[in-house]
Write a structure and sequence with these properties.
mainly alpha, 3-stranded antiparallel beta sheet, two-stranded antiparallel ribbon, 5 strands, elongated
Length: 232
């Protein structure tokens, strides 16, 4: 029986890591699965029960919560995105104020990203991105940190819980096509459009045709759905 308990614990732990939601939600579903498998073990049917469930990922798909409704609308997603990317928005405003003081006002969100490579400006818009010899601490420090939060920080949160601060306020959740958590790699990829500066808005073009997924959502096969308020 101890060997069965160990198998059940390992299977249930791997199963829970695929599920979206809070730690409490995942623990509740893990406990339900453990109870089911313990009953099977007592009846001498553990092997058959595990065979029916498949691997932990397949089992998580079967146990995926059903409280999700339609994919989120544009306005709701934009509101969540603005909250999530407040650091990057603050950097864009700071760059604009800095430029105004230098008589070269430029306001763009997401802000232009540029690098000096061998004295050559590499940017989505060189004239705006490399107009100054000294970019200042905002470009050197604040922007990389803000981009790291928008691309990596938020992706880590989504890969662990399916949500972010902005999405939590808007009752949204990011999921894979099967209703499970995105892996970290795809979660990061769908946020790399920030590196394109204002050109990143092209990622939202599908919404103009009535679709509710960005281009990078389609690329990594992700969807952003609304969730009943009580489940977040």
């Amino acid at each position: 029986m101890i060997a069965d308990q160990r198998r059940i614990s390992e299977f249930a732990g791997a199963f829970a890591r695929h599920l979206p939601g809070s730690a409490a939600e995942r623990e509740q579903r893990r406990a339900e699965l453990v109870e089911h498998l313990m009953d099977a073990a007592e009846a001498g049917e553990l092997d058959e029960a595990l065979r029916r469930l498949g691997d932990p990922h397949q089992a998580a798909v079967a146990f995926a919560p059903s409280q999700f409704s339609a994919e989120a609308r544009f306005a709701r997603r934009i509101g969540a995105a603005l909250v999530d990317n407040l650091p990057l928005l603050a950097v864009a405003v700071a760059i604009a104020v800095q430029g105004l003081a230098r008589d070269s006002f430029t306001l763009a969100f997401p802000p232009f990203v540029h690098l000096q490579v061998g004295g050559v400006c590499v940017s989505t818009m060189p004239a705006a991105g490399c107009i100054h010899d000294d970019p200042g601490w905002i470009q050197r420090i604040a922007m990389p940190l803000a981009l790291a939060w928008s691309i990596v920080g938020l992706a880590v949160l989504e890969s662990r819980t399916g949500t972010t601060p902005g999405k939590r306020l808007a009752a949204l959740r990011t999921l894979s096509e099967t209703g499970l958590l995105l892996r970290l790699g795809p979660a990061v990829v769908r946020r790399t459009s920030f590196l394109l500066g204002p050109v990143a808005w092209l990622d939202w073009l599908p919404f103009l045709t009535g679709r509710r997924r960005r281009m990078l959502d389609h690329l990594v096969v992700a969807r952003v759905v609304t969730v009943r308020r009580g489940t977040l």
